[in-house]
Records
---
Amino acid sequence: IKGITYSPTKIGQSPDKGTLVSWMYEDTNKNGKADGPYDSWVDKNRNNEQDPDEPAVGDFQLLKEMGINTIREYYQPFKPNKAVLRDMYGRYGIRVIMGNFLGKYTFGSGASWFQGTDYENPEHQKNMLESVRQMVMDLKDEPYILLWALGNENNYGVASNANKKPVAYFKFVNEVAKLIKSIDPNHPVAVCNGDTLFLDIFAKYCPDVDIFAANVYRGDYGFGSFWEQVRDAAGKPAFITEYGCPAFARHMSLAEAEEAQAGYHRGNWIDIEENMAGRKDGAGNALGGCSFEWI
């Protein structure tokens, strides 16, 4: 997985203000093509305008040129545009890790933000299972689907009680994995954890989850003992659903900031490569990673 979280949000759009829209459908110039994937350009002189010598390239082409083969997306809150994703795969060879928030930020559970998703609440469970079922039924035969990812560091909490009731949460994750496999036996299922918090509980209660994936930010040296921890505790393959750092730093010049970002990403990717199967000294269970983020 040479992946990235792709979310080309325009300046001024915000989920908090209710102004966020789906990049798969946004067509500001009304030319029948999604803006980000097809109409973006490289602003070589950084004047924030498209000049005559800056033709439209499109993000999909830029992603392909940088070596990306996978993007990470969520089924919520906007239903995917299948035509756009089919074109992305067919013309650019990029596949999709499709996620369901599984109650994070209350997506799919039906809970209010202040109530939060309760993983012991039968009604919340029913709603989330139905949300996952709809996603898998809708997309299981799409050629661009690589795997299913459940949650987004739900174990940290935030409008859910997964951090307070981790056993209930991971038991439910396994129930969801079994549901997915009953509908779609052809794609693996991963959990998207926050680092290795509650890894021991995952290992005990999630035998039907194929992959342990996590958002991990530990520094420019890589991920430390992450790979060995997952191998020894759970015996599962693993990948990083989020890693990286921004190129914006007030205390640095643009050149210094971009080199610092490049160094961070370089160190992280070297660590991923060293722990893939077939390497002599690594853990042998790394499947790749998704940098965070294209925005």
---
Amino acid sequence: SLICGRSPGCPPSRSKVHSTFKQRFKMPKIDHNRLRELGFEIYRALEAPEEIARVVADYQVDTNLAGHDSHGCLAIPRFARDVRSGKIIPTAIPEVVREDGPTALINGNRSFGMYSAHTAVKLASEKGKKFGIGAVGVTNCNHVGGLWGFVKSVVDEGMIGLMWCSAGPRGGSMAPFGGMRRVMAGNPIGFGVPGKSRPPLVTDISTATAAGGKVLIALQKGEKIPDHWVLDEAGQPTSDPEAFMTEDLEIFGAMRPFGEHKGYALALFAEVIGGILTGYGPAYRDDYIEGNGTFVIAIDVERFIDLDTFRTEVDGYFTAVKSVPTDPHTDEILIPGEMECRTRIERERDGIPFAENTWQTIVDTAASVGLEVPAPLQE
């Protein structure tokens, strides 16, 4: 067990053991199975039921295994704070509040957002198999993390997955194209299709130039960021992550949309689908509660074409795309999702790396609920 003798709820502490740990390991790598158990026991100590704790912990670790560190276990301290503040209700169960054939609306009831999204994706997949298409929205939902794993779970069922998410604090986190002040959310979009012998195409993109989690990682590392990622409080481009946000996720700058007007258009659509269609509301409103209005669609391929034929055609298409000669700056053409599959193999073997400060925040969170921390694999 990872449980130590400290009582649950004791205050965060950088004990002698943790200080020694920090001095000895500047870039720890953690075995994914150990990390799963640590996350699970942190959430159990925060009173989450076993199923919810397991889903959230596994999803965060799987996100790290895919290489999306900005949306994985980085959020453990944030979720612990949100439980203590009452923003996340750890015992809450999402419920279907509206249902009509292939469609449904789920009230997340302020449960862990990843569990609410997990519930929605599962229901959308079931409806996709039954009706040919399943469309499920989630309102009153906390932070769902990255969309990549949710989309892949639909794809793994032999279906096409589509996902939109409204993702902003109150007042938004992103400026419109050409604007100097935040008013909209940094809304991600995910989609994926199953392949056959090749890994599936799975894509999860923020409509911001860079996700806020990447800015947070740079802040924790003490690194600069590209000056086209965000604006400071005065609406000016900055390479200083501290001019955009604090480690406690207080945002006073603004993210910028990727692709200029194209990313801006996609962000608008994602907020309409994820925020307004679900009843969550857009981020600019004063009564917006930070979180993620989420919408997922699962399409059953076999309602349109034989699944094996589809998979074969997709593989052939991807093979043709990858066979194109590369420019001098490119070693290989990759299909979205290939890199994540390779990263997972590597990290399952070698461990998941963490920046020193990021890992320390997880260490402190574990200590605050009375848990020991698994030893890292290496520096």
---
Amino acid sequence: MSARTIVITGASGGMGRAAVSRFAESGHRVAMLDLDESRLDHVAEEVRSAVPGADLLVVPCDIADAASVERARDSVRAWSAQVHTLALVAGVLQEAAPISELPIEEWDRTFAVNLRGNVLLIQAFLPLLPPHAGASIVAIASWYGRSGHGLFSAYCASKAGVINLIQSVAAELAPLGIRANTVCPGNIDTEMHRRALREEAEERGITFEEMKAIEWSKIPLEIAGPPDSIVDAVEFLASEKASYMTGASIDVNGGVLFH
């Protein structure tokens, strides 16, 4: 792709940070959205050190808050009249708990970020995506959105919602030539994944290493994937190589689920 403008949410997290680096290395302009401005500044500094001349915009944003999303959109619009890829990477993992004990506040928090936040972002940024110019939306779902898993009902339901949301968006935007797809990661070796392992280990009364061994042994490729493996799929879906793909979900999960 020639230089284009990419908006990445969750830009200071494991997958988001890898995505910022990848698109900057490819010469694209990258708007970095996340909640913590200091962490965003740190990531921007790292990327600029590795990619001199990287064109980055740091945008603090609470994606679950409509006013914050609108302010972020206005900041991006002042910096770039168009957005060619909206990469919806931000997400949260619920605190592990059986449904009988899951506080409804935790359910609401999970849905506010994983689903409501993506709706707000799509609504806000859609006017900046040019029709019939190769623009696309790429959202991170999860293999946990493909099926239910004990202790993670809110997370599974929210990520299933992301898959169906993006399919609906794909149907609506197809006449405009704007594509929308999802990536469904398996266990990716990010801090969020390790936090989930620690929480489930505590729930089961075992050590983190024991929990990691249990979970990673379920993966046919025997490791949690690196964040770059997800960015590979995001980059592909944002490119002209995926020009005939919309409403699709790409599984990048090490073989834990064949779908």
---
Amino acid sequence: MTRKIRKVVFPVGGMGTRFLPATKAMPKEMLPVVDKPLIQYAVEEAREAGLEHLVFVTGRGKQAIEDHFDHSGELERLLAQKGKDDILISATSMMAEKPGQIAYTRQQEPKGLGHAVWCARNMVGNEPFAVVLADDLIKGPTGCLKQMVDAYEKVGGNLIAAMDVPREHTSRYGILSPGATRDNLVEVRGLVEKPKVEDAPSTQAVIGRYILQPEIFSYLANQETGAGGEIQLTDAMARMIGEVPFHGVLFDGHRYDCGDKFGFLQANIAYALDRPDMQDDVQNYLNDLARQG
């Protein structure tokens, strides 16, 4: 039987240089899509999947993330006094149900995703866990992580979220060497991080959702660097192929790369158009822009 996934790691220690100057004093994970920060979407996705314990791997200048998932007594009292119960519920819904369900650890140097995950080893312990990258915002009828947890309960092992990308973009991603595909699961026979376009084994790319066995930490402990001179999670996962079942989940949903400015704008438009309180105004505005040429 597979062990239940209870913990999820959020690597949020990056510098957010692609969004400077906006991210000079604000974590990129706090950038809002409509009226909710990226990191809250990620946490809500994890909770939809039934994950109970949240581990944030932070860095310098990330205090706003901790504050966001904590009580703000003055704000809560003000909203209650003014009868703004709907806003009060929205502002407090992301907090832990029980004390101790949210933990923070510091990644003192930005050495790559693999290093960030390794920094969470003592909080994860010897059990399988999930990793969610808030930059990858996935909009669909069911959360991507919920789809992955459902798949994990059937096949166990390691899983990654996967999607097809244009061949000319394969150098931006971890790329699968795919095996057999059944339903929404593709067997992973190999992984390579950011290959040259001509060397990419497929166009199926790893997207920022993972379910990993704790043995990954022993490979990350070697601190070996890969693409970009960083400690790559993809390289450690590749070494586990053959030791445990390994699958890519071809998720149902649309992924927005919110680490990219255009992808971030796309996400804001898409989520605004899905909001009954503003969809008509946004659509009319877009129509006006199109008519103006």
